[in-house]
Amino acid sequence: MISWAHARADGLVPHGLITGILRQVVTERLYSSPVAALVFGEPGVQYDEPVIALRKDLQLPVLPHASHPAESSGA
């Protein structure tokens, strides 16, 4: 995913097209690696501007918050 971000930033692939494709992949596979690593980051990895820009452009949907037992019991 980092390589796609750099290829997009360098103009090697059509900006809108690759953003749309990656948005679909990320939405369908949000919690699988390496998609989760792109979206949520990884410990000790400092992402550069192309990766951050791609994250912003993906406009990821907000996932519903999973309720925890303490929340559902009214405690």
Helices and strands, with pairings:
Elements: H1 2-9, H2 15-28, H3 35-40, H4 49-58, H5 69-72
Helix pairs in contact: 1-4
Give an overview of the whole structure.
By secondary structure, this protein is mainly alpha-helical. Helix content is 56%, strand content 0%. It is built from five helices and no strands. The C terminus is likely disordered.
Element-by-element helix/strand order:
HHHHH
How many beta-strand runs?
A: 0
- Radius of gyration, in Å, reads 15 Å
Shape: globular
Global structural class: mainly alpha
The span between the termini is 41 Å
Number of helices: 5
Mean pLDDT: 76
**Assembly state (oligomeric):** single chain
Task: Give the gist of this structure.
The protein has five helices and no strands. The protein has helices at residues 2-9, 15-28, 35-40, 49-58, 69-72.
